[in-house]
Amino acid sequence: QEIGWLERAGSHVEGRDRQEVEEAAARATTSYQAVLELLETLLARQRNSQSAEMAFNTELNILKQWLADFEARARTPADLKGTSEKEYKEAKERQAALDREINQESGRVSTVLNDGEVLLLSLPSVQLAVQLTEVEEAWKLVCSLTSSRGEELEEVWERWQQVVVPGTRLVTWLDSRRQEVEVTLAEVKQGESRERQKQLDIVMADIINRTDKLEQFNALYADLAKEGRLDEYGELKALHEKVNKDLSTLSTNTTSLIRSL
User: Fold this and answer.
1) Could you read off the pLDDT of 99-114 as tens digits, one per residue?
2) Selection from 151, 119, 114, 118 nearest residue 136 by Cα
């Protein structure tokens, strides 16, 4: 309004006065345009900041939801239900999928945290700072849970194998020895009884020599049972029962047959 007045005032004066009025009006117009341009720049910057903040909050909320969902999955047990190689392979594949997902999301997590720090410089916010801290802590947690889950899988499998491998060998040995004592007295000729007794003595000595291995097998199984870490299918329990039952039967039958001979 004042600029318009100056421009109109110039038409009412002459000579040097008119020149001074026109120059003053020009300077005022220039200053006014500069103020308008500055104001437009500030408004544009504000609009961009608000737009950037909205976009960031959207990405932040998506990331927080993924972290919550992934944490729930990472907290689930390794789901190794049986002692077969097939079960172990499938459990390993499920763990590998979690590891891959963690690696794939690491870039997104870094980007969100970095963008959040930049946003804080232009728009300081206690709430945003708290959210960024929570995201960083949640990320560290899911990384730790995923790593621990994989370690737990390997530890359980290794301990199961410490029972399965010697247990399977004991079963094979018991089967072969059982065949040697599955004979009735009527099937043993009088002339063969002495030779037969020698064979049975060897079997009995073999049973005694394997006492340490049996005790170790039973101790490893007992530790797993006490910790509640036996397989869901009950294969370890079945193996443990079979070994001890077959050994008891073999020992009883061998002793009985030796006495009979």
Assistant:
1) 999 999 999 999 999 9
2) 114
